[in-house]
Amino acid sequence: MKRGALDGIRILDLSTVIAAPFGATLLGDFGAEVIKVEMPGVGDPLRNLGPYYEGEGLRWSGIARNKKSLTLDLRQEQGKEILKELVKKSDVVIENFRTGTLEKWGIGYDVLKEVNPDLVMVRVTGYGQTGPYAHKAGFGTPATAFSGFTYLHGYEDRPPISPSFSLTDYVTGIYVAFATMTALYYRDCQDGVGQSVDVSLYESMFRMMEFLVTDYDQTGHIKQRSPGLSGHSAPAGNFLTKDGSWIILVTSSDKTFERLAHAMDRADMLTDPRYHTNSERLQRFDEVNGIVADWVKTKTKDELQSYLDECGVPMSPIYSIEDIFNDPQYQARENIVEVEHPRLGKVKIPGVVPKFSETPGSIREIAPDLGDHNEAILHGLLGYSVEEIAQLKEKNII
């Protein structure tokens, strides 16, 4: 039985922590066989990142599902030879070592492509494989700042604010999955060849900010930080309801504002030259937001949600994770699913997205313990004997 749309694709995940491993997980969700290669006795540091419960790192279950764990020391010659044997039988290698590390070990892309000319290698670094910063260490939070994203967030009279979770890493992980599939499509559907793909953390965020680039190029305007959506549409922002709940409301088109104006019983704003177009409202952003804020305060959260849904105005309560667990939309879409953890019992993790009609993704395997699949891979895939596997373990190669 097929495991999903990517059944038959084998990926070697040499990467650690979040960005590149998350991309491999997305591919694993849709049927790719993902072999996670980890250092013996150490493993991916993500195994031990917080939050924690009963000594267990809780992130591992969600980000490492649908993977097999093989321990392998890539710094030792025999470890490199085993990697090459795996590369012969694989389609993709995903790695996020510092630029030049695999080349220094003698297992860079040029070497591995000689072993398997059809190999696709996706390489993730902070600043890319080229340029004056190529060899700098790169983590998600500094890369977020370098991308220009952090500069935009916060209040002008206070320090800039970094995202409160590893946003850039997860965004980059999506690029990793996208890049992998694009390269495989070229190789398999256009009579192409394997290739190396260069993905950087900072570029994944910078690519989403075209509004900054052209604005600065044409006007010289340097957009300053603000606590919410600004400079795009008005009204937009966080508003407090009558019962003390925070909601977010935005009108990204004049048609949407027309619906809101009628909902507020302020049809006069549609003919008033100060408010009738988005460009005019943007010049009076605080004033327009103030009008909306005063109106929102007259209704409870539930009243507002029901009324604006009926009027076709996009609005949402600002949810905590507790709100998410209790919401019927999340439940209906199976956005949170339950799996068995080897020590904690039943644990909940994010479900599979997006939803495919013919080849839906699935969670087939729980996140593995370190080296769980050593024997299955070395014996079952590569043909090593039980004795040979024992010898590799004695030498700390696995």
TrEMBL record:
Gene3D superfamilies: Crotonobetainyl-coa:carnitine coa-transferase, domain 1, formyl-coa transferase, domain 3. InterPro entries: CoA-transferase_III_domain, CoA-Trfase_fam_III, CoA-Trfase_III_dom3_sf, CoA-Trfase_III_dom_1_sf. Keywords: Transferase. It comes from the Bacteria. This is Formyl-CoA transferase. It comes from Caryophanon tenue. Pfam families: CoA_transf_3. Transmembrane segments: none annotated. One of its GO terms (molecular function) is CoA-transferase activity.
